[in-house]
Amino acid sequence: MSASRKSERLAVMRSDAPIAASPGTLVVPEGCGSSTVTVMAYGPDAVVEEECRDLEGLDALSAAYPVVWVNVVGLGTLDTLTALGERFGLHRLALEDVLHVTQRPKVDEYGDHLFLTARMPVSRSELETEQLSVFLGQTFVLTFQEEAGDCFEGVRQRVRDGRPRLRRGGPGYLVYCLLDELVDAYFPLLESIGVSLEDLEDEVRTAPSRNHVHEIHRVKSELVTLRRYVVPLRDMVAALLRQDAEFFSEETRVYLRDCLDHAIRAQELIDSDRDLAAGLLELDLTLAGQRVNEVMKVLTITATVFIPLSFIAGLYGMNFDREASRWNLPELGWSLGYPFALGLMVLTAAGMLAFFWRRGWFR
After folding, report:
1. 288/94: higher pLDDT
2. How far is CA 223 from CA 28, 212, 265, in A?
3. Which fold has domain 294-358?
4. Would you say the pTM of this structure is higher than 0.70?
C-alpha cells in the first residue's frame, strides 16, 4: 500500500481522544496547524470580508448583517475554538466532533443550530480529503477546515459579486451552496478515476502485464473509500431535507433536492466504476489464464510429437549384436538404414501434426 493510501486510511481510523475521556473533552489533533479565522458578513446590499483577529468584532457584524460566515482554517488553537463555541452557543459534543477528524458525514441537531460533517476533496486527481465541519444557526454559518485550501472560492466570489439569490437566501441557502460545491468537487476526482480505468482497459486488452492487477486493486480500493464518503454524504443531504423550516426555507429545499440528485449521481458513478474495475480484474485474470493455456498447448503438442520420435531413436539405439542373430536390428546393416530412420521420424511427426490440425488444436 502506498504512503498516500496508508495515510488516507489512518485519517479515517485514528482517534486522538484519550481513552475513557468524558463526553465533550476537547483534544487538538496531532499535527494540526494554528487556527486562522476569516469572516464574510453580508446582506442584500453590502458585504464585508476580513480576517478576524478579535472575536469581539463578530458581535457588531452579527448585528449589522443578516448572515455571518466564519471560516476557521487549522484546528491547532484550542482557545479560538472554545471562544467561538461560547460566542455562538455551540454544543460541546459538536465541538468535540470538530476536533475528531475521523467523523463520517452526518447531521446533528442541537436545538438552535445544526452540526454537519463531511469529507472534502482537496485534489482533483488524487484521493486526498479532509474533514469539513459546519455549524448552521439562524444568523450564522461556521465552517472548520483542517488545512488551508477548499472548494468554496466560487461561493465567496458569488457573494462578492452580489448574486441576489445568495445575498438574500440566508444562512440555510449558504449551507446549501457549500454542500453543492463539496458534492461537485467529487466529480473531477471520479472523472480522473474513470479515465484511469479506461486506460487500464485498453492496456489490459492490448498489452497485458502483471502490474495491471496491482493497479486495478488500487483503483478499487480508492472507489471503496470514496463510496464510504459519498454514501453518508447523500444520506446527510437527505436528512437536511427532512429538517423543519427553521433552518431551510421551501425555496432552499428545492435546491437541496438538486444537491441530493448530484450526490446520488456521484454514488452511481462510483458503483459503475467499481463494477468496471471488477470486470477488468476478471478480464485480466481470464486473459492471463488464456496465455497460460496457449503456452501449455504448445508445450503439450511439442512433447507429444517428440514422444514417438524418442521411441524410434531409442529403438535404433539399442546395442543388439547382429552377428548373434539376423533379426537383431537388421536395418543397421542396410545402407539406407539411417535415412529410413530419419524419414520414419519425419513422417511420424508430420502425421501427428496433421491429426492435431484436423482436430482443431491449432485454432
Report:
1. 94
2. 30, 16, 14
3. Methane Monooxygenase Hydroxylase; Chain G, domain 1 (1.20.58)
4. yes
